[in-house]
């Protein structure tokens, strides 16, 4: 039913990370509140996580026809996922190569060609530059080097579309490094994902850091006091999470009634985020709802409405928790090693990825933005490179402890 597909969309990480193996009798300190309130820390997360991690974006069923495209915005990176005439999937930054105007101004559409209305530059469905008015007169202009900025795309076994914003010819992190086997989970064999069609989507904005929502999603310790609908879908008493590499798998034992009604959930959470546009103190949740073609309207509405209630309830929890974090009274709490294993694992992954990237920046004595495009070789880029170096020199300084911004 619909929950399987709904809950496929979630979170993951760069390397295999494990929470310290402590006794179930000992609580574990969570990340400090500064990690949920600091703009500088969020900027580092943008470089360390969202610039180079694989992110689950949508399903191929949302783009059935050549020229179909959908726009997404994650951590300030606006990009589109599209399908060309050969049914190949592409992703591009929404940036014209001429003067950085957005090529795609709607939220979704179907196009024969991608055209920028600022100066009329146009691109094929494969992102290659098709036309640059008046530039045919310039001898030194390389048309092949001025297509849309491409983004790495991976289509998994079940038809889900993933992207990686790393600007390298090959991403530093391969999809298999974090997610090998995620699309062939034994429990997914009961579902035929081709039987699901896109029904609708909706967005909500919440005044909280993106990690608050991740922490909340990955435990059901709060379910008895907040979500009266959850027992319909899952047995709260048997809820557990399994952690591996870049994902957190939720599971619980089905009751006989749940099994008879087909109401079990196959829920997996991927790091860092699949349906959110992340900001330091507010998050925009983007929910994509698919339904089984054989589902009755009654069954579908039961699940869809229940899910909408649950995420609305979570929004309230996250906003009120963030409000108290912003007050600078609370540093961190002690989490239950079993009941809150999910958020502890998520936080351990985030800590490792962020610290590792920060150490690289200290050695390089500069910010490292994996998604940023490098200047091309050639005499024409020399002045631009010098301009960049001047700006970087103004933006940072070093001391005996390393890089300071």
Could you explain how this protein is built, in words?
The chain has 405 residues and is α+β, with helices and mostly antiparallel strands. It has 2 domains: 1-52 and 208-374, Naphthalene 1,2-dioxygenase Alpha Subunit, Chain A, domain 1, CATH 3.90.380; 55-172, Rieske [2Fe-2S] iron-sulphur domain (Rieske Iron-sulfur Protein, 3-layer Sandwich), CATH 2.102.10. 28% of the residues lie in helices and 22% in strands. It has 10 helices and 20 strands. It has helices at 2-6, 39-50, 175-179, 210-217, 223-226, 230-233, 256-261, 297-326, 341-364, 382-395; strands at 28-29, 55-59, 68-74, 77-83, 89-93, 108-110, 114-115, 122-123, 129-131, 152-155, 160-164, 196-206, 240-244, 247-251, 267-270, 276-278, 283-292, 334-335, 397-399, 402-404. The strands form 7 sheets. A 4-stranded antiparallel β-sheet has the order 5-4-3-6, with no helix packed on it. Helix 2 (39-50) packs across helix 9, helix 4 crosses helix 8 and helix 4 (210-217) packs antiparallel against helix 9 (341-364). The radius of gyration is 23 Å and the shape is globular. The protein starts with a helix and ends with a strand. 35% of the residues are buried. The model is unreliable at 1-22 and 275-279 (pLDDT under 50). Keywords: 2Fe-2S, Iron, Iron-sulfur, Metal-binding, Oxidoreductase. Its cofactor is Fe cation. Pathway: Amine and polyamine biosynthesis; betaine biosynthesis via choline pathway; betaine aldehyde from choline (monooxygenase route): step 1/1. Catalyzes the first step of the osmoprotectant glycine betaine synthesis. Its EC number is 1.14.15.7.
